[in-house]
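Okay, is this right?
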Amino acid sequence: MKSYRKELNFNIPTRRGYVNITQQVQQCINESGIKEGLVLANAMNITASVFINDDEVGLHHDFEKWLETLAPEKPHSQYKHNGYEDNADAHLKRQLMGREVVVAITNGKLDFGTWEQIFYGEYDGKRMKRVLVKIIGE
């Protein structure tokens, strides 16, 4: 069995945002030479997420609206975590959207269902963050 590891770096210029990382993950698979196996992509920061969904702008807007309803950014004083930082809402949003995804690799390609894409979700941006891509297989 072979193993491959790579880190993807992101610096989203806004507090929140979404980036389709499907092609970057596929490029990692290509670099690895693995044809059959599994790929893990996980956010290496507690205020970011990696998830699978449809790449549709209206849906991304709906994510934002839904997350802001469940864990509003302001007022910052509503959260006990906020003191040194003002990002308690980002921790909660990450919890809702998830830390990681695992996708099968078949014939050297991501083995997706209809419309599935991999996304990096940022909830406390304006600084460098990482996504780990780990691939195992043959």
In short: Helices lie at 22-32, 57-70, 88-97.
